[in-house]
Amino acid sequence: MAPPLQTGCGRPCMDWIPRGDCRNWRILAAGTVKAALWKPVGLRFHARLPAAATGWPSPHSGERMRQALLIVDMINRFDFEGGAALLRATRPVAPRIGALARRFRAASAPVVYGNDNFLDWRGGFADLVASCAGEGVGGAEIVRHVLPEARDRFVLKPRHSGFLDSPLELLLRQLRVRRVVVTGIAADSCILITAHDAHMRQLQVQVPRDCVAAQTVARRDRALALMRDAFGIDVRGARTVRLVADAAGRGRGAGAGRRRRNQATP
C-alpha cells in the first residue's frame, strides 16, 4: 500500500484540492478520499505526462538521450506521378543522408528505415531493396547512397506515417530512443506526418532541411516552416546533429572484447 501523500506544499498539485488548509489533509491509502472534503478548482496539469504513463524513457532519468536516424521512403522506384521531379530533388539529398547514416553507425546509434512496401506485401525489406536497386530502375542511383547495413533496422509502413499501423513506436521504445532525426522523402507528405506523429508521442524531433526533399523547393520549405512553427521541430541542417558514442553499444563491444580475451587466455 502506498504511503499517504500530502498536498498543498506549493508543488504542482492535483486537479482537486481540499476545501480548508491543505496541510491538514492527506490523501487516504489506495488513493481514496471523502468527496465531501474536496471541491473542484481550475484544472492544473503538468506540462508532460509522466514517463510511466507514456511508456517512453523519462527525460529526467539521467540516462543519456539516445538518438535514432529514421530514413523514410528512400528505397524507392520513383515510378509514380511527379516521381521524376522528386527524383531530381532527391539526388543532392541522398549523399547527405548516407553520410549522416555513417555518423550514426560510427556512434553505435540506431539507423531505422521506414519505407512504403511497393511489393503489395508479398516480399520483405531485402526484396524491396533489390527491386529498387536493379539496373534500369529510376531510384537505383538513390538507393546506392543509402544502402542499409546488416545492423540497421527496418519498418514497412502501409501509409504515409512511419508510426501508423507499424511497429516503429514499439521498436523505438525497445531501443530506449528519445530523439529521432527524420530524413528522406517527401518533405510535404511522409516526412511531415511522420515527424508530427513522433512529436505527438513526446519524442524530440529534428528534420534536417538539407536531408529532405519534395517535388519543388517551395513545397519543401512550406512543410519545414509548418513543422518548425506549429510543432517546434528543429529543422536546422545535418551539421547541427550532435552525436555522442552510445554507451550501451560501447559496453556491449567492450564486454565482447573481454570475453574473447578471457577465452584466449589459458
TrEMBL record:
<dbReference type="InterPro" id="IPR036380">
    <property type="entry name" value="Isochorismatase-like_sf"/>
</dbReference>
<dbReference type="GO" id="GO:0016787">
    <property type="term" value="F:hydrolase activity"/>
</dbReference>
<dbReference type="InterPro" id="IPR050272">
    <property type="entry name" value="Isochorismatase-like_hydrls"/>
</dbReference>
<dbReference type="InterPro" id="IPR000868">
    <property type="entry name" value="Isochorismatase-like_dom"/>
</dbReference>
<keyword id="KW-0378">Hydrolase</keyword>
<feature type="domain" description="Isochorismatase-like">
    <location>
        <begin position="68"/>
        <end position="232"/>
    </location>
</feature>
<protein>
    <submittedName>
        <fullName>Isochorismatase</fullName>
    </submittedName>
</protein>
<dbReference type="Pfam" id="PF00857">
    <property type="entry name" value="Isochorismatase"/>
</dbReference>
